[in-house]
């Protein structure tokens, strides 16, 4: 394959670049700024800078088309929410190029947390009781309904903007800071006790071809995982296939789900229809075979496989009055780093460029850095410039499917 990996700023995008490049495929990496870590891997044959898919959609599509033509790309693998813009503008991509992501309507159903709850219910996948709030009054009424609650926007990501009165994030956000609208509603659920369980899958023509279930024993600011431990996949694999079947059975792309494990009962919380850090736990050959859909059985990561982002673990050791120091030091010694064995250390040395990019995207405001880091590549449910009338209608239908 000759592959374009987009949004190469993410650790998991770098991992995909490494897996493809190390197995003999030609890889071009791209992002909206030159310092993205994946652009500097030794496994890329070239790296490119594109316009922002969110803010300059037409130019982004033109840039991707130019990259495809110049580098003779046959497959595009989105790694973040640029997938929505590419899927909505698939009719404008060159003939013959494979876009490894679902159709726009499928992505929208999965990404909108409100419509995802309906999808999970239809698929027979357990979900918490859910109330959708379209304005401040409805939000307050929903919060008052649950003694312990957990609320977030229908379009949110990365553990940013969570409203709750329970757990380590209680009080971090005020109710008045949430501003739900019919176009940007909020979900309110009873707080479900238990650890978060995450999944990552590749899917080809409606069949799950690889799957990983993992926990994040170490997190940065109770949000983004920096240590990843594979656990049993029996239930999550079955749930993932059910959800894929509910989408219509023709889904092709990457999927990631978050569950809460409440004393052995898993409850689906949300979906990211793209890769997450679970891909790091897959072996390179298994990942590429699953991507191509040539394996007869699902490649499942065995429980106990563990990887960490050592730089983040080291930084975390010195937060919260050194309370994480003993475990962090243990992990640094005993847990394999995501870059171990790749001999590709130059790529991670570009990590500060991502922080600089996030600072620029925040425009000097006090916006949370995790939110700012992806501002130019996210999709929050709006109509996309140049999308087909069919996809615009599909978007309206997705909104109507909210619980």
From TrEMBL:
Which InterPro entries did the record assign? ATP-grasp
Q: Which UniProt keywords apply?
A: ATP-binding, Nucleotide-binding
For this UniProt entry, which residues form the secretion signal? none
Keyword ATP-binding part of the UniProt annotation: yes
From what superkingdom does this record's organism come? Answer: Bacteria
Q: Which residues form the ATP-grasp domain?
A: 117-302
Q: What is this protein called?
A: Carbamoyl-phosphate synthase large subunit
- Taxonomic classification: Bacteria, Bacillati, Actinomycetota, Actinomycetes, Micrococcales
